[in-house]
Amino acid sequence: MIAGVVLAGGVGERMNSSIPKLFHNLLGKPIIRYVLENLSGLALNKIIIVVKSDLKEKFQYTCGDDFVYVVQDKPLGSGDALKRAIPELENFSTVLVVNGDAPLITTEILESLISSHNADNVSATVLSTVIDDPMHYGRVVKDELGNVIRIVEAKDATEREKNIKEVNTGAYCFSVDDLRLVIDRMTNNNAQGEYYITQLIEILSSMGKRVNSYITDLGSLALGINSRFDLSLAIEKLLTEKMEELMQGGVTIVSPENTYIEPDVRVGRDTVIEPFSVLKGNTFIGENCTIGPSSYLLNVDIGDRCDVFYSVVKNSKIESDVRVGPFAHIRDGAIIKSNAAIGDFVEVKKSIIGSHTKAMHHSYLGDADIGERVNIGAGVITCNYDGKNKHKTIIEDGAFIGSNTNLIAPITIGRGAVTGAGAVVTKDVEPDTVVVGVPAKILRKKEEGGKGE
Ligand code: UD1
Ligand code: CA
Hints:
- By secondary structure, the protein is α/β, with parallel strands linked by helices.
- It is built from 8 helices and 38 strands.
- The mean pLDDT is 97.
């Protein structure tokens, strides 16, 4: 049986932040979530996360109950962190250990690491990569036969070792039995006064146990996020991958370098993403849409053949053949039904806009349930808030709401009713009735089958 251990007890000083490093936002999700998703893709029987004691609840809240949380009271080093997880490894033969700050080491890479470890039947396998400038990373030191004999941190390395370009990514496979033999033999007499996980490699090797390295070609991206600069590189890498995936799926992205799309976004074939668009969260866009230029979508479900032009849409649903924008704001559970149009400077909050209904200019539609083929004139406001509570506006099919009408909710405007320009409507309006004025009064009933004008 194989277990996973995520080392997440470090301090992350180089981020220069009051937010713990692994909670920094990487394309809409905290860094740690990527690492856990990558591990979850493997057939592990248990995943253990080693955390700082004061962050245990925060980790639990963010990562959920599928994991075992182990506390490291003091940040005594990565080796000490692994030691905290040992009691959880009973009945396991192999353990995969990863750093919590390396979100780009994919499931596939980890799978290859495990396969290589099992195939060679070694005591430990280090996931390494080769880079031109090995900087502050741990060097992988090998003997003439290619066996790993130690990993030396840059601060402790000799001049000769500093020239080694194969570096430790911080992911390892260990035989659990061998790990138990050496876990209490770490010392902290090194440049940082820490218990290094990497010392375990040296101890195993000196006992005559075989240690291999498995080299990934991911390069410096495998080495985790230590600084804001590293974070920006990870963002760039994931964005590029996402855009490539979408383009292969038949999506046109006019200017990839000026577009932001988070990993969980799905886009249908022949949709065009115009420049300066931001697609976030669980956003799903159908086929043959045009999004942007300059649209911001967060958790939005959009049908086919829609046009969202210079607009903001959040946590809402838009059916097919809908036109939005420019400069519309649709939010908080709004539903825009097929063939509707939401025009410039229209805000729609928590409202249903029926099929073929049009609200083309300067409106606020909040807590409203609007039927089919309704015309919302310029400047119409649903006055949904009385200072204490929010109230509902119902506008039935075929109503005509004149320009600058104020609808004082709660209120119902009947089917086919008409409000005159500038009306302040304080009472329900019967179907097919024309009201005008402040406060609005009945002008007349519409004639049978007539238009009421
Ligand atoms: C570590 C490796 C280095 C490797 C590099 C790759 C060690 C000693 N060195 O260096 O060889 O090239 O990763 O990025 O591991 N942690 C704890 N508790 C602690 C200290 C650290 O859980 O007390 C965790 C951190 O959260 C992190 C991991 O251990 O996930 C590595 O620690 P970090 O301080 O980031 O080591 P690096 O200097 O990056
Ligand atoms: Ca690190």
